[in-house]
Amino acid sequence: MKKNFHPGISSNFIKINSNFKVHYLESKPKNNKNLIALLLHGFPELSFSWRKIMPLLSEQGFRVIAPDQRGYGKTKGGSSDFDTDLKQYNLFNLTTDIIAFLKKLNISKVNLLVGHDAGSIISGTAALIRPDIFQSVVMMSAPYTGIPIINLQKLSDPIHRDLKNLKTPRKHYQWYYSSKTANKDMHLKTKKRLHEFLRCYFHTKSADWKYNSPKKLKSWTAKELSKLPEYYVMKLEDTMVDSVIKYKPEKKEYERWLNDDELGFYTETFFKTGFQASLNWYRCMTSSSMNNDLQIFEGKVIEVPSMFISGEKDWGMYQKPGALEEMKKNVCKNFYGIKIVKNAGHWVQQEQPKTVFELLNNFYKSQKNN
């Protein structure tokens, strides 16, 4: 798969401790300005997801680093079992992973931290609790709403019952991903079938899928959530494979941003590893107690310069009603705005890498001018 990488990108490993060995991609600049950019992927992605952005940032003088996070890709460490100690996948430990990784690389400051999807949440948390390390942060696709607050009402959230009681019974994908059956459903028996599933999954969440027309939802109610596509609020009886496989792309629009050889990199990787380790992230997100370790930081906000990027066809920015507004008004003290990228869906850094690069580069340069 080396032909999918820019020749300036190298594949590396570094041992963090006896049980944790991180695989990461790195792109070094020709003119070293001592600038560091750290890129954190989401689900079901890998460090590979940043392949188009990395060389562009390096041309601007950044040493660009993109790890496979715990539970993903070639990184070793983190249980891939369902019956495991889930705390290793909570926000506190995933953020600690990143800080320990940087320490091993002898990096004390990151000039530009960027996270996509689930990586957006890790990036937001890291920038909030360690502004001494992370000097600016860009969150993509998934708005970051700050330190999770224990809400007793939320512990008895009726949303799942209400979704089941809709005329067409539904269920929320995050809770499905937290179930014991999700990995079995998605870790298909042949590479061909897994490749087909991943093709449909990436397709339905991209700008190529004609049914993506995101809009704000009024409230966290079953009626409003039912407006979300099936890859977010699924039919009750469906697996995720069922939810997307019927939307196999008729044309090859994807050739411009994720051709079959590139998708093959994901297929090969997840066929080897399965999805359970990465799904354990969701089990922590949907837990009422797994992120309690962060309560010591309750009330803190992101003080460093911050920005949010999303594709115009990405429902991710609206899937949690009010999240965008909360991030903008209450979480990010030095906010540089919400940037919407045309002709892009959820995979914005893969679908429109040049535009995303320009936004990142302008964001960093504007900080220097302030």
Written account of the structure:
This protein is an alpha/beta fold. The chain has 2 domains: 2-150 and 290-369, Rossmann fold (3-Layer(aba) Sandwich), CATH 3.40.50.1820; 152-281, no CATH class. The protein has 15 helices and 10 strands. It has an 8-stranded mixed β-sheet with strand order 1-2-4-3-5-6-9-10, with helices on both faces. It has a two-stranded antiparallel ribbon with strand order 7-8. The termini are far apart. The mean pLDDT is 95.
Report the CATH C-level class of the largest domain: Alpha Beta
State the shape: globular
Q: In which order are the strands of the major sheet placed?
A: 1-2-4-3-5-6-9-10
- Helix percentage: 25-40%
Q: What is the domain total for the residues?
A: 2
Gyration radius over CA: 19 Å
Total number of helices? 15
Average pLDDT: 95
CATH superfamily of the largest domain: Alpha/Beta hydrolase fold, catalytic domain
Strand content: 15-25%
The separation of the N and C termini measures 42 Å
Number of strands: 10
Spans with pLDDT under 50 lasting ≥5 residues?
none
Helix and strand composition category: alpha/beta
What CATH calls the topology of the largest domain is: Rossmann fold
Largest sheet: 8 strands, mixed
The sequence of SSEs as H and E is EEEHEHEHEHHEHHHHEHHHEHEHH
| CATH architecture descriptor name of the largest domain | 3-Layer(aba) Sandwich
